[in-house]
Every structure is written in structure tokens, then in C-alpha cells.
Amino acid sequence: MKKGYKVTDVKREKKIGVAAENLKELIEKSCQKLSFNVSCAECRLFVAEDGTQVDDDDYLATLPPQTLFILLTKKQKMVTDFDFYYNLIRSSKKDYIDTGFAAKEFLNTNIRDKFKVFQKYIAAADDAKTLLSDRSEDPNWFEGLELSEKTKEQSMCKRAKERMRGYYYKTKTALKSSDFYVHSKNGQGKRLIDQFLIELQKKLESNNYNGSYFNRKDHSDYRLCSDSGLFQCGGLWNIDKCSYNREHVINPYRSREERIIFQTWNLDHKIELSRSIIPSIFKAFEALQLGNCFCINCEENHSVGNIDTDRYYLQIFTRDNLKLVHIVCHYKGKHDATSDVYTVCKACSKERF
Predict the structure, then answer these.
(1) Cα–Cα dist 289/303, whole Å
(2) Distance (Å, rounded) from C-alpha 116 to C-alpha 122?
(3) Nearest-CA neighbor of 154 among 24, 64, 29, 285?
(4) pTM score
(5) What average pLDDT does this structure show over 210-238?
């Protein structure tokens, strides 16, 4: 079944609508409509919001209709979120940044100084509009968003869900592209991974993809912000609070500029997804395949068992392991925290449900 998408080029000067059933068709139609004078094989497609490259039909299927994509040739580079957001702000806030010298000065400063400039827009935002919710009440806040997004809360909830889908797809891609999956004996590895991914997705769906994290009207136990929508940085992955003495705060509900800047904030895995969680999932599968299941509940060895999907769900998608951080506090080096092998015997697995 075909879905409708929106596609633009690196300059974002022209946006076109494309109905396509798969990635190949989407790229071919986009090339034609955007008048790309190159072979479709030389083109790449990226999600405009976060720069993720779409390179197969599986990931395309996870994206909602009307997602905006950037189509690039092999010679073109994806404009980073940071620079693109800055250009958006500069074009809409000329009173604060005079073209020429100020822009040059901004781009030549380091990351911490850049965010000091962003603070000017945050400070200049109209507090009176913060608590407004409907599109009709604060239309400027919704500029550039889909018409289906009627309230700020709905829009922010959607952003949180997109991040969760991204984590799921990253996990799915790593597992399904592995030798364990592709070359599994008698298909056992493939069956184990497929079942795990089904269970993982069901848990996400039952929790509405944790959209509550960015929804200020949700229960305080689930959201990451205050009643007004103020978010505070949690600090580096291995400390309890941010070291920047309340400098790292933002309310994306207040203005369009803050909503855009908020996309540079990260949900940081304290136990890292790629370096630790996914490798431990593989170890769990390998143990099960070898008939060596150490049950984390009864702490006994068994020849048959299951992977503990709940434990890995908590580590990948929940606040048990996720911390919202300002980009300055997002440490990209290796974290010392590690995941473990979580398997349960059939008896303990049944007792839990």
C-alpha cells in the first residue's frame, strides 16, 4: 500500500509530495519531481528532522505518512541539524542576529558559546504564549509542522515516539543484520530474534511508545518536564545532576525557536545501546542456543529458557536507563556502565505472567 511523503533537497527551497510503496519508488519519483540530473542510484534519502539515512524498506515502513525527507546526491552532504536550526532562527529573528559579522562570529565560536547565543532567543521568547496549546492560539509555534498536529502536546508526544521508534529500529537492524540471524543453524537464531523483536514492539505499543515523556499534560510520574513544559538537563551519564547550575534548561512549549533547539537535546543511554545492550542481547541468544540458560530469577542453570525481554525493554526505552541531556552534557565516549545477560527459565517466565 502506498503512503504519502514529503521530499525536499539540501537547500529546502522546494517541497514536493510523493506517494510511494517502497524506497526505490520514493527515490525515483523524488528525483523526477525535484529535477535531479543524476541517476537514482546516486541518490540518498534522509529523514529531515534528525538526519537518519533511510536505506531499506523496513525502516521506511516504520515512518509515518507525511514524513519529510531530504534527497541528496552522493556529492552532497547532509546539513547538520545544528547549523540548519541556526539558519532557521537567523532568518526569523533578524533583530537579534545581523547578517554578516554576527553570523560569522557565531559560526567561529565553540559549542558552549553557540548555546549562549541560543539563550538570547530563549530569553526573548514570549512567556505569555507558553501555556497556550491549540494551533489556533499560537500558530507561529506550529510553523513547519504537519497540519495534523493540532496541539503542542500532541506534537511533542509525536517527537518522543519518533525517538523510541529510532531506538527500536536501531536494535532491529543490528540484530537482523548479524551473522547469528542470517546464518543461524536450523533457523533457531532467526526465530529467537524475531520473537524478541515482536515482544519488544508489543511492549512499546502497549506503552504508546512512551510519548508521555515530552507531554506536559501527562502524569508527573511519566513526563520529563514540569506542568508548564520546562525540561532540565540531567547532566553527564555518570552523575546525578547537571554541572551547569541551571543554565541547561529549555521550554519547547514556549516558542518555535525553543521547539527547534530542543531537538538537539539527547535522550542519553547511561548503559549504551550499541556498545553494551545489543552485545548482551546477542550473548543471551547464544546462551539459549547452546542450551545454557542461567535464570536471573531462581538463579539456577537450565537447558531451556527465554530471553528476559522486560529487562532489555527497560534499558532501551525507559527512564531506568535514559537521561535527557543538553548537547554539551552528552558524552559520546565509552560509558563504563554495562548491561548483563538476562535469561529466565520457563517456570519463572510463566510465574511472572
Answers:
(1) 9
(2) 10
(3) 64
(4) 0.70
(5) 96
